[in-house]
Amino acid sequence: MAGSVSAAATAPLLASHARAEAPSAAQPKLRQPAVTSLRINRQAYELSLDTRTSLLDALRDHVGLTGTKKGCDHGQCGACTVLVDGKRVLSCLSFAVMNDGKDITTVEGLASSDGKLHPMQQAFIDHDAFQCGYCTPGQILSAIGCVNEGHAESEDDIREYMSGNICRCAAYPNIVAAVLQARDQMKGA
Amino acid sequence: MHPFVYEQPTDISAAVAIASRFTTNDDQPTRANAQFIAGGTNLADYMKLGVAEPNRLLDLNRLADPGLRQIRVTDNGIRFGALVRMGEAADHAEVKRRYPVIADSLRLAASGQIRNMASLAGNILQRTRCEYFRETSWHCNKRVPGSGCAAMEGFNRQHAVLGASDACIATYHGDFAQALIALDAVVHAEGSRGSRKLPFAKLHRQPGDTPYIETDLAADEIVSAIEVPAIPWARRSLYLKIRDRESYAFALASAAIALDLDGDNVREARIALGGVATVPWRARAAEEALQSKKLDEASAGVAADAAFAEAQPRQHNAFKIELGKRTLVRALLEARDMEV
Q1: Global confidence as pTM
Q2: In this complex, which of B48, B61, B248 lies closest to A98 when CB atoms are compared?
């Protein structure tokens, strides 16, 4: 059978393999953990992961940062939104190994070391922009991305560019209000 | 999820060499043993669902050629590197100014997070979102050749009325592709048999009796760039997308329009339709119907009738014919009235 698991696992590695220069990088094999370096919330981590591990599962199950939420796990709800190199992405649709060397920000990394909340976190509290709170970490990270991308110029703009984040409590009007408040503070910062 | 070996080639020839080694030229990219990944928003999803099961994943994000990440605007048109992200292209000032239809099609697609992840090449090669294709317990000729199509007699409200066959009625769900086919874009591909350019209109294949063959690309071919020729009058262009909710949903019907007008008379019209067809759909009959005509509601209606003359509805998607026509009429009139 073409493409059987064993055939792929035993096939020789090409000389041009990207990691060939690293002395410790043996030829990749099926089910062999991949060493992945991530910088998460300004702290370095080196993880040995099954290649199938999503960035989301790496954050929650391997690093223990459970602020990032698993909702649909298929890119439809936005609960798993994090910033990768400053841009908001869905951690459920990204394999952790693909993020090797990247800078990740989760909701745990937003407050400053003295405990002062990020303006977006404070705005969500000020405007009561969550009920059950499950979608909130993803909403906040997405909202920061939305502001940084310059797509929070109007309420309609915010609704459009926050549409990848679903809130089943329907706190949407308060979320829009929170993003507007934080936008101005983030600009002033 | 099926386990896979992960590799990060640093140049296209290395990526092609690995793919060639683990696939044969007979393998379609979607069924290949080794598959390329860039943004991952489509492939990772299908790997989780067990729809895609590559044994080897070749991550293209470490490819060194800077051209893969650039948008270059010249007198000859615009060249999009394959790894440019959708959000970046949607926000590009010159793309917005010269080709509003391109920027619109990207801006109205997916969500902010997905647009930050998804590459342009991956976007045009995305697979259908047909629910019967996504759920592996159903019969699907696109997923398992010869197994049958559950959508034919199933809940086919989302399905195609144009370009369908007895084997498959799955819709092509992308948006960007409609803008590209309307503007006569060209795709650059590199594979073990060398580099080639193919017209965007030749990239996707109608299902016929081989719906699992979705594109003209071989399994070891990588799209490196997408070129859109210079079309000065394309400033009068737009993408209109009609869907069940205002944002973050696939099109029920959409229209990509570019118009060259002499007053209200049509010198040239470019029309592509989305949400209603099995592949990115150039509506040439509608374009011809408008040639040298005064563009008004009546002539737009004639063009819309021409666009859907061959439409074949199923039980739940017949509404798409009328919706598609009205979408096209509205898009044409809105494009006519644009201030450029």
Answers
A1: 0.93
A2: B61
